[in-house]
Structures are given as C-alpha cells and as structure tokens.
Amino acid sequence: MRDYCDGINRRDALRVGAGAFGLTLESLLRRQAAATEKGIDNRRDDVSLIVLFLKGGLSTIDTLDMKPHAPSEFRGEFDPIATNVPGIEVCNHLPHLSRVADKFALLRSFTHTDSNHGPADHWMLTGYAPRAGFNPSLKPNNQFPSLGSIVAKSLGPRGSVPPYVCLPRMHSSCGPAYLGPTAAPFVVEADPNAPDFSVPDLLPPLTVDAGRLGSRRDLLQTVDRFARSEEAKANAAANTTRTFREKAFSLMASPQTKAAFDIGLEPDKLRDEYGRHSLGQSLLMSRRLVEAGVRCVTIDHTNWDTHYDNFNTLKKDLLPHLDSGLSALLRDLHDRSLNQKTLVVVMGEFGRTPRVNKDAGRDHWGPSNCILLSGGGVRGGLVLGETNAHGEKPVGDTTGPADLAATICHCLGINPDNEFHTPEGRPVKITNSGRVIRGLLG
C-alpha cells in the first residue's frame, strides 16, 4: 500500500472519506503553513525557475556545441546553421531555436567526472555528487536536496499554489532529502498532452463545478460525524486534518486554482506552436505555473540515452519536440514580460561521447557538456567557454554542477553560501562551495 508523503496511506484516507477529496493538497497546505511560521514573506516577487531535464543526456556535440571541422567519426551527420546572433551556431534540426538565440546563453565550459546514470543525475539536480551508500534505484534517491527543494525551503510558497512542481512525473533525484516534506515537490503525475489531462490528487476533474464539490463536502462532513470518536476529539492532529481539508476544498473550488492547471484554457494556436507532444505541452504548463506563482517547475523528459541510432532518433523524434517546445517557451516568456522573472535551465546528466560508436550512437560522457540558460538575469546571445577541437573536454576555466547550483540560487535571490541543517543539527551548505558563474550574468 503506497503511502502519501505525510505517511498516511490510501486505505487510511479512504476509511475517513478523504481519498477523493484532495489529501495531497492538505499536505501541501501543511507545508505552506509551516513555511509561514518560519517567517517567510509569501509576497516576495522574485525569480522563478524552470528546469528542463533531458534524462539520458543530450548529445550536445550534435546540437549546441558542434564540431563541423572535426573528422567524421567525431562531427557526426548533422550540420550547423547560423542563429540570429552572429557567431553562434546550432544544429540544423533546431531551426526554431536558432531564431531565438538572442534569448539564451550556452555554457560550454561545463564538466564533471561521473558518466553513470543515477549518480550523474543526482549531481546535476542537487549540485552535490552522491556519496557512499547512494542507491540510484530508490525513488527518491536524494542524499542532498534537489534544486527545487532548495527553492521551496528557502523561499516558501507564493499564495495558494505549491512552491515546487514536478511534471509530468518526478525524477528520482528531485526529492527533498533531509529537508523533509516541507520541501517536497507536488507531482502532477499526468501528461499535459493527454486529451483528458487532469491533475490527480490535487484537483477534481476540471469539469466538476463548485456545486458538485459542495455536495462532496457535505458527504464528507456526514462521514466525519460518524468518525469522531472521543479519542479523535482529543487528538489535535485530527482537528488539524479537518482544518486543512476545509482549506483544500476552498482551493479546489477556486476558479484561479483550477485555471492554473487547466492547459485547455490556452489558445489552440499557442498550443500548436509549443507542439502537441508531451514535451511541448509540459513546457507550456510550466509557463502557466510560474505565471500563477509556482517558484520552481522541473520537467523530466526522456529518453535521450542515444547509444544506438543516435542521429535518426534525434532527427525524427527528440529534436523536433525540443525545437518547437523550447523556442515557444522562450518567446512566450518574453512576450509576457516574464523572461527576467523566470530562469530557464536546460540540461541532461552529461553529454555524449565525442566519437560515434559502432552502432551509430554516442555513449555517456561526463567530461564535456553544454548547458542552455535563459532569463532570470542571464545574458542572452552569449556563449561562455569552449571545448577542444573534438569536443572531448573544455579548455581554459571550467564550471561544474556546484557552480551551476550556486548560479541558480544567486539568480533566485538565495545566498548559495547559506546553510541548511539536518534533523540531527548538522550544518550543510546549500551548494557544495560552488561559485557563481558571473560571466553568464547581465
């Protein structure tokens, strides 16, 4: 029996009639109340974060850091094209992205030393390399808090929306670690591209009106009257549960809350521009959520692990979706004047091997990667750093996961040198002594 994040399993919830009435939202409200008690100012109007995690590892040598003059076994099958910024080139299968290069920066000095799924994921999504005892098969597997959990813990929620959302699912390394449930993400657990898309455990079906929801509230209150034993009356936790559940009903009946997750409210033309696929609609949903006040959205998109038939997989499937979705997001944020209030980070856990393998694929490659960043104080139309002639490693000054985490924190107004404390009271730096990458900032 799967437990909720607050330790209540579904059988217990159904026993008191709460399973169909937004228990996950109740735990969300508990987290928000806890944040408020710690003195967080929910009225702060600061930068939000969208992390697009290309799970499996984007082949940056074929896309964002091409080597057209290298031997064929390195340069691959694709050609570079000019962008709208002189001197910056990207893959010819990213034509829409090439037209918005003035809105993003490319960090080509990026490197780390782990070429294994799991540990590399954790390193990229937390800023900390995993330590002894790390088990990549756990869900979540965090030894250190994810970027979204850092944001949620440091800044708290804005209004009624959750501070940290994962969609369409939660990556294993997106958990809160020792920060606990107050910093856990709300997980959409549904594909925004699905015709019948709705958000399980948060909202009733989007067609359920407030009147029907009120009837459900009346039914729940009837069930509660039978459930209130003398023991329950004496139990403050039971009373608190009812309080948060009532708030959950209020939010579920709120047109503003329902609208934030109702992607069907977007014009068909704009949905088409993002692309009618999971990645495009997830990116559109991320814009809706940050516009509604969510502080961090992490999109887990798979499968970029192109060991076999790398070029056909990229050309026919992965790159067209990335091209339409990401270019539309950057334009959309700019058109809505949200670009400087929204930091977008696009990354995988590593790059791919510079040399093409015998199966026309590329394997894992931690030593060289390229990160795309946009908005939130990052200068557009910029390339920072470079790799050698075959794309094997950066030359000159290098940057890594701790530096990226520190830069993200800096852009969101979080001091990366601050400390969290484990339940035992042990201080742990928010970032692993990373340095802010000043060359990216305007």
Structure description:
The chain has two domains: 1-39 and 206-260, no CATH class; 45-202 and 263-440, Alkaline Phosphatase, subunit A, CATH 3.40.720.10. It has an eight-stranded mixed sheet with strand order 6-5-7-1-8-11-4-12, with helices on both faces. A two-stranded antiparallel sheet has the order 2-3. It starts with 9 loop residues before the first helix and ends in a 13-residue tail after the last strand. Helices cover 34% and strands 14% of the residues. The protein contains 14 helices and 16 strands. It is α/β, with parallel strands linked by helices. Strand 13 and strand 14 form a beta hairpin.
What topology does this entry show?
Blueprint: H1 10-15, H2 23-37, E1 48-55, H3 72-75, E2 80-82, E3 89-91, H4 95-98, E4 105-110, H5 119-126, H6 147-155, E5 164-167, E6 186-187, H7 210-227, H8 230-234, H9 236-252, H10 255-260, H11 268-274, H12 278-292, E7 296-302, H13 310-335, E8 342-347, E9 351-352, E10 364-365, E11 369-374, E12 382-384, E13 386-387, E14 394-395, H14 401-411, E15 419-421, E16 427-429
Parallel strand pairs: 1-7, 1-8, 4-12, 5-6, 5-7
Antiparallel strand pairs: 2-3, 4-11, 8-11, 9-10, 13-14, 15-16
Helix pairs in contact: 2-9, 5-14, 12-13
Architecture of the largest domain, according to CATH? 3-Layer(aba) Sandwich
Enter the CATH topology name of the largest domain.
Answer: Alkaline Phosphatase, subunit A
Q: Could you tell me the strand content as a percent range?
A: 5-15%
Mean pLDDT over the full residue set: 85
Structural class: alpha/beta
Helix content: 25-40%
What is the terminal-to-terminal distance?
Answer: 50 Å
Instruction: Outline the biggest β-sheet.
Output: 8 strands, mixed
- How many domain units? 2
Question: Biggest sheet, strands in spatial order?
Answer: 6-5-7-1-8-11-4-12
Number of strands: 16
- Topology pattern, helix = H, strand = E: HHEHEEHEHHEEHHHHHHEHEEEEEEEHEE
Q: Which geometry do the CA atoms define?
A: globular
CATH class of the largest domain: Alpha Beta
Number of helices: 14
- Low-confidence residue ranges: 1-23, 35-45, 236-241
Within CATH, the superfamily of the largest domain carries the name: Alkaline Phosphatase, subunit A
